[in-house]
Amino acid sequence: MAEGPDPRDKPLEELEREITCAVCHGVYQQAKLLPCNHYYCSTCIEKMAAASRGRPLHCPECRKETSLPPGGVAALEPAFFVERMKDVYGKMAKAEGKVEAFCEQCSAAKSVAFCRQCTEFICGDCARSHQKMKVFAGHVVASLEDLKKGGAKSIPLKEAPPVACADHGEPKKLFCFDCDRLICRDCTIIDHRDHKFEFLTKCAPESRKTLRHSLAPLQKVVADMEGAEKTLVSEETKVERQKEEVCRSIQQSFDQLKAVLDQRKAELVKKAGSLAQEKKEALAAQKRVLQVAQKEVQLLVEFVERNVEGTSDQDIMSIRTQLATKMEEEEKRHRQLSLEPSATADIACNLPSPHVIPDDLGSVFVQPTPALVQNPGTFELGSQVEVKIFAHTASLGKTSLPV
Predict the structure, then answer these.
(1) 8, 153 Cβ separation under 8 angstroms
(2) Which side of the chain, N or C, has fewer Cβ within a 10 Å radius?
(3) How many Cα atoms within 13 Å fall on the side-chain side of residue 119?
(4) Which GO molecular-function terms appear in the entry (predicted)?
């Protein structure tokens, strides 16, 4: 089984972000785990709990509701790995020269080397002591330059000191499987005599192996979710692209319908214009005939009036028969002309009401894939779902509207 992720594999900048509390933006201090598996400084959680005034608090990152256990913040599980990451970050920062390294064994003198067994930075004097004293036999001392060249992987991780038993003061180096807790050697004689227990150095590797093996199903779930997310993103892209295609089809169809209507409108307007022109020409011709006739009759009227008023009795009597005959002829002749308009303003149109056009002209609908139609609601996480959008618009064709 492959080993879990080593914090030394991460760049220093990323590791720095991981040891920074999202609430106070400082380095984690006594980090505690919330049930949602996000972790914050103990004091930060205490402040959040105080601000919630007895109500469940919400995780600042995932917003999940969390109720503190009866023991309060102190009863929350500690985030053990955070302290390990802090230790890794501190050593990496010193090894890469981002933080000045001082001797961790004797004084505040600047360190010049690193002991891989002590997992501490040491000064020149302590480095020489490591070479001379028997207590340091077998210790490997590396210069800071060698440490930089070797990178973070060349820095050994310091094991956490064993926790002291509260009852016996002895280090807890064993684990009781019946009680599921750490115990010391004295505990095995007194309270856990008949229990199943084992040294940490023996049972911890096996527990790590078991937990890593148990991760496989969860890792499969994560992989499936990642695949499903990619599918969703792909479908979102397809839906957006399909929407644009459908909108283009709708626009083209209604542009065609509008073109048909515009063409028919132009035909009807032209027809109305030609009918009006015919009627106006007929009326104009009739008006010209009437104007000529009116002038002829008016001229005769004026001629008769001048003779009646301006001639002698002898003259009027001489031409009276002639004048009477002429007036009678003109009256008969002009009475034959029609005084009624030969054309009237009776142009009309017959057009459909806008209400004739249905409100559901055309449609946009979703057509599911056959698999979903046959088995609705049975698709699983990671399965591909295809959604197609269609548009249908009725073609009006060229409409014939009588005038």
Answers:
(1) yes
(2) N
(3) 14
(4) zinc ion binding
Within 8 A by CB and 6+ apart from 77, the residues are 32, 33
Tokens, residue 90: 């501190």
At 65-103, the pLDDT tens digits run 988 888 889 889 888 888 888 888 888 888 777 888 888
Pick from 396, 399, 401, 400: which is nearest to 256 by CA? 396
* Tokens 């109720």 sit on residue: 67
User: Which tens digits make up the pLDDT trace of 128-137?
Assistant: 888 888 888 8
Return the half-sphere exposure (C-beta side, CA atoms, 13 A cut-off) of residue 348.
3
Report d(CA 129, CA 118) in Å as an integer: 13
Cα 305 to Cα 284: distance, rounded to the nearest angstrom: 31
The whole-chain average pLDDT of the chain stands at 84
Q: How far apart are CA 120 and CA 324, in angstroms?
A: 150
Stated pTM of the model = 0.50
Q: In the beta sheet, which residues pair with residue 60?
A: none
